[in-house]
Design brief:
276 residues; alpha+beta; Ribosomal Protein L22, Chain A; four-stranded mixed sheet; 7 helices; 12 strands; 29% helix; binds coenzyme A; 4-PPantetheinyl_Trfase_dom; holo-[acyl-carrier-protein] synthase activity; P-Pant_transferase_sf; 4-PPantetheinyl_Trfase_dom_sf
Length: 276
């Protein structure tokens, strides 16, 4: 049965600019040197997960949405201005980034959207997996040859703790309850992002009973595994989790089926984006 939980944060997004992840990476796994060359994007090695970050402005450059499909433009037109701005920025930047990996013009990419809403690339380009998330000012993409899920959440000082019994596994609830009050909000969002990254990698989003996924192991460390209930694990396998430090005041995590993945953090400049 589908759950009806909302994310702990909303998705208003501001300044358009994809910038290098210069934030400290206390929980990131092996880092690669940043690649500033758009043409260098095509090299996506086995086990590599590229993490892209962008920020979005309150007003969009005129050419920003030029690469969107008719369906995408119609979707944006149905949204409120704030939601439309977020969608146009995220989807058009995603197209431009993916174009570099698959060697195809951004506007010609056709996304397949499955019954749970997860977009993927059809045909030979299906070898490139991706996922995106946005919250507050931030948008992040994960791109890999392996199935990936990513989530970012702005840390609210007043998290919706009322959803805890509905979304946290027993051990996660115990870990949270043991923490001093001032550490709880950050921990709650760290758990949430790890959990949502797993469900987005699986592709079912919040449709899964989130209590069946325990992400509390090593939540303060770099690379750990999510513990899935027996039924869920039998169907969906094991997922490896990485915390990613995107910006102050945000929690973020990426989940990948590959145990030895290597994270690379990348910058995307607006002038490069609009040149494609
Ligand atoms: C996926 C889901 C967790 C996103 O939650 P969120 O925190 O609000 O949003 P995020 O910013 O983290 O991620 C949104 C992006 O995830 C991707 N996405 C959408 N559905 C997805 C899914 N089932 N699995 C993985 N990724 C998904 C999309 O790229 C989406 O961006 P878009 O809206 O610009 O196309 C939520 O939409 C969900 O639970 N979906 C469950 C399946 C469902 O009910 N789908 C509706 C079908 S019409």
């Amino acid at each position: 049965m589908r759950s009806c939980f909302c994310c702990p944060t909303g998705h208003p997004i501001s300044p358009w600019r994809i910038s290098m992840l210069t934030a400290a990476q206390p929980f990131a796994a092996k880092r690669r040197p940043p690649d500033r060359s758009p043409s260098g994007l095509r090299a996506l090695g086995e086990g590599q997960v590229d993490i892209w970050r962008m920020q979005i402005p309150s007003s969009l450059p005129a050419r920003m949405g030029a690469v969107l499909s008719t369906d995408e433009k119609e979707r944006a037109a149905r949204c409120s201005p704030q939601v439309a701005r977020a969608f146009i920025c995220a989807r058009s930047a995603l197209r431009r980034v993916l174009a570099g990996y698959v060697g195809q013009p951004a506007a010609t990419l056709a996304f397949h959207i499955d019954e749970w809403g997860k977009p993927s690339l059809p045909g030979p380009a299906r070898a490139i997996h991706f996922n995106l998330s946005h919250s507050g000012n931030e948008i992040v993409f994960a791109i890999s040859r392996h199935i990936v899920g990513i989530d970012i959440e702005r840390i609210s000082p007043t998290p919706p703790y009322e959803i805890i019994p509905l979304v946290l596994a027993r051990r996660e609830q115990q870990c949270l309850a043991r923490l001093p009050e001032k550490e709880r909000a950050g921990f709650f969002y760290a758990l949430w992002c790890r959990k949502e990254a797993v469900t987005k990698a699986i592709g079912r989003g919040l449709d899964i009973d989130l209590r069946q996924i325990d992400v509390s192991a090593g939540v303060d460390q770099g690379e750990t595994k999510a513990s899935l209930s027996i039924d869920l694990k039998a169907v969906h396998g094991a997922w490896h989790l990485h915390h990613i430090a995107i910006a102050t005041g945000f929690a973020a995590a990426v989940a990948c089926a590959e145990p030895n993945c290597s994270l690379a953090f990348r910058e995307f400049h607006d002038q490069e984006a609009l040149a494609v």
